[in-house]
Amino acid sequence: MVRTLFVVSEEGYWGEECIEPLTTLSDAGVEITVATPSGAPPVIDETSLDPEMVGEETAEWVREVHETDERLGDPEPLATIEASDYDAVVYPGGHGTVWDVNQDRDARRILADAVENDSPALVVCHAVGILAFTRTSNGSFLVDGRRVTGFPNEWEEDTVEEHDVMPDGRKLPYWVEDEVVAAGGEWDAELDADSSVTVDGALLTARGPESSAEAARTLLDELEIGQTA
After folding, report:
1. Does residue 49 contact residue 43 with C-beta atoms inside 8 Å?
2. Which of 68, 119, 127, 164 is most deeply packed, by most CB within 10 A?
3. For 164, phi and psi rounded to 5 degrees?
4. Do residues 222 and 139 touch, judged by C-beta distance below 8 A?
5. Rounded Cα distance, 18 and 122, in Å
6. How far apart are CA 165 and CA 185, in angstroms?
7. pLDDT score of 227
8. Are 11 and 96 spatial neighbours (Cβ–Cβ below 8 Å)?
9. For the segment 102-152, what is each residue's pLDDT rounded down to a tens digit?
């Protein structure tokens, strides 16, 4: 059976970006393990459960899975994880990732090991910021020279308030696009497209929530797994 690891934030993951690929891969018969930096259950960004933001149907579906899925309720700590035990890894986004997953040395180790060994790694939205801090075994940035998409500056401008303060009062420590470009990433968020998923070797990146379904399908294609209707 194909095994996939989900690395999920304890500081606020965006619901659809995790739940869409989680359920899509599960329906396709993929065995999924969830891990968080400390091993505590992941925390969902409440904004991603707001019916006015995401629609009533999506909000209800995401909340139900978040509250009932045993894998999300009992994750593994990242320090105990080896990328070689999995066929693929998934990093859902959400602003919370900038405070924990993207800064976590084990999260970065797992990502680098997966990509360097040609195991597909799907990184979504704000989690793409991890590429600004992830280095290969020879010390170069993993993203250097790779084509990527992710949460763009143009959208961040509409999210933060004065002095880069989030609506919840936390100061955003960095903007994903700026840092990934500085690390050598070839950035194109395809702002004119409804969704944006980029594949460069084993590295798959997705722009945001509206790209979650395409991202999940793309990962299944990379794993050469047939999709359910």
Report:
1. no
2. 127
3. 60, 30
4. no
5. 11
6. 26
7. 65
8. yes
9. 999 999 999 999 999 999 999 999 999 999 999 999 999 999 999 999 999
Residue 187: phi and psi, rounded to 5, are -85, 130
Q: Residue 156 and residue 161: Cα distance in Å, rounded?
A: 10
Query: Topology of domain 3-222, per CATH?
Result: Rossmann fold (3.40.50)
Residue 136's beta-bridge partner residues? none
The values of phi and psi at residue 55, to 5°, are 95, 145
Do the Cβ atoms of 7 and 228 come closer than 8 Å?
no
Which structure tokens are listed for 167? 């609506």
| pTM score, whole prediction | 0.97
Every domain of the chain and the residues it spans? 3-222
Tokens 């994880």 map to which residue?
Answer: 81
* Both tokens assigned to 56: 């009533």
* Neighbour-count burial of 163, counting CB atoms closer than 10 A to its CB (0-12 exposed, 13-18 middle, 19+ buried): exposed
For residue 89, the surrounding DSSP H or E stretch is strand 88-91
Q: Could you give the angle at which helices 212-222 and 15-27 cross, rounded to 10 degrees?
A: 40
**What tokens appear for 37 in the block?**
């930096």
Collapsing DSSP to helix, strand or coil, 40 comes out as coil
